[in-house]
TrEMBL record, chain A:
It is an enzyme of class 2 (transferase). InterPro entries: MoaE_sf, Mopterin_biosynth_MoaE. One of its GO terms (molecular function) is molybdopterin synthase activity. Pathway: Cofactor biosynthesis; molybdopterin biosynthesis. This is Molybdopterin synthase catalytic subunit. Belongs to the MoaE family. The lineage of its organism: Bacteria, Pseudomonadati, Nitrospirota, Nitrospiria, Nitrospirales. It catalyses: 2 [molybdopterin-synthase sulfur-carrier protein]-C-terminal-Gly-aminoethanethioate + cyclic pyranopterin phosphate + H2O = molybdopterin + 2 [molybdopterin-synthase sulfur-carrier protein]-C-terminal Gly-Gly + 2 H(+). Keywords: Molybdenum cofactor biosynthesis. It holds the Pfam family MoaE.
Automatic annotation (TrEMBL), chain B:
Signal peptide: none annotated. The gene is moaD. GO terms for biological process: Mo-molybdopterin cofactor biosynthetic process. GO terms for cellular component: molybdopterin adenylyltransferase complex. Keywords: Nucleotide-binding. This is Molybdopterin synthase sulfur carrier subunit. Gene3D superfamilies: 3.10.20.30. Belongs to the MoaD family. Transmembrane segments: none annotated. It holds the Pfam family ThiS. GO terms for molecular function: nucleotide binding.
């Protein structure tokens, strides 16, 4: 391999893989995250996105705010597994998985999944599978703040 | 000595402690750890017996027969609730 070729091949992607799987306190920009995914390949022809936001009601009770707690290290590991399996098993080109932690105000963003594929069918399937799987295997917990007090949410939706 | 990380309701049930330190002899398994926790924190013990709270060792859900070694990263994991409920 010539030096020129090696340099080209070794060029870092515009974003490294770490940016495609994140657990972070701060809010995210959907536009920026979409751009991040779109930059990964020119073969992308269909993108499905899921955005989870904080609702003001849960099981018939008012909710004033939510706090998410995560297991640092294991949460990221599980989200990486989800991204890798989604790409491998659903034939999509790229998947981004972000989850916020800390205090989240009603109406704010919580979780973002973006699945990009050549065609829409696999993008939809990968996106739905990824959010369902996230809820099953990712060590993230939710504390709801209600007028009656704080409640750790146990059940899977 | 092993350190056990607590989250969510398990942390609350342990008086808001983020970690527990327990002494375990060599050759002990996850089920022995569960017995020790049950004796000290019966409410957490009950959730562990019902499998509502799972034990992870080195960031993977552990079987009760898995041997626990000194320095292992152990955590008690209440039911997960990521995402936004009902979404």
């Amino acid at each position: 391999m010539s030096l020129e070729q090696a340099t080209k091949a070794d060029q870092p992607a515009t974003d490294d893989d770490a940016m495609l799987v994140r657990v972070q306190r701060e809010d995210f920009s959907i536009d920026e995250e979409l751009k991040r995914v779109r930059r990964r390949s020119k073969r992308i022809g269909g993108i499905a996105m899921f955005l989870g936001t904080a609702r003001d009601r849960s099981k018939g009770k008012d909710v004033d705010g939510i706090t998410f707690e995560h297991y640092e290290g294991m949460a990221q590991k599980k989200l990486r597994e989800i991204r890798e399996r989604a790409i491998r098993e659903f034939g999509v080109i790229e998947v981004l998985v972000l989850h916020r932690y800390g205090e989240i105000a009603i109406g704010d963003n919580i979780v973002l999944i973006i699945a990009a594929a050549e065609h829409r069918a696999e993008a939809f399937r990968a996106c739905q599978w990824a959010i369902d799987e996230l809820k099953q295997i990712t060590p993230i917990w939710k504390l709801e703040h209600t007028p009656e007090g704080e409640v750790w949410v146990e059940e899977h939706p | 000595m092993v350190t056990i990380h607590l989250f969510g309701m398990t942390k609350m049930l342990a008086g808001n402690q983020g970690t527990l330190s327990l002494s375990l002899h060599d050759g002990k398994r996850v089920k022995d750890l569960v017995s020790v926790i049950d004796a000290a924190y019966p409410k957490i013990g009950e959730l562990l017996q019902k499998k509502k709270v799972l034990v992870s060792v080195n960031q993977e859900i552990a079987h009760e027969d898995l041997e626990v070694k000194d320095g292992d990263e152990i955590a008690l994991l209440p039911p997960f609730a990521g995402g936004s409920e009902g979404c």
